[in-house]
Amino acid sequence: MIRNAWHFYYALVLMIKVVCGDIGVALAHPLTKR
């Protein structure tokens, strides 16, 4: 049970990192185009 919770937490953190990375790229793109 604890192992499953850890895997779920790890997947959640990984997903947040990917989403934040995509948002960061989307925000940085117009700045680099300027």
Question: How would you sum up this structure, described in words?
Answer:
With 34 residues, the protein is mostly helical. The protein is 94% helix and 0% strand. It is built from 1 helix and no strands. The chain has one helix spanning 2-33. The mean pLDDT is 85.
Structural class by helix and strand composition: mainly alpha
Instruction: Report Rg.
Output: 15 Å
Unreliable stretches covering 5 or more consecutive residues: none
Distance between the termini: 50 Å
Sketch the major β-sheet.
none
C-alpha geometry:
rod-shaped
SSE pattern, N- to C-terminal: H
Strand content: under 5%
User: Assembly type of the shown chains?
Assistant: single chain
Number of helices: 1
Number of DSSP strands? 0
Helix content: over 70%
Quick synopsis:
This protein has 34 residues and is mostly helical.
Topology:
Layout: H1 2-33
Which terms would index this structure?
single chain; 34 residues; mainly alpha; 1 helix; 94% helix; rod-shaped; transmembrane helix; transmembrane
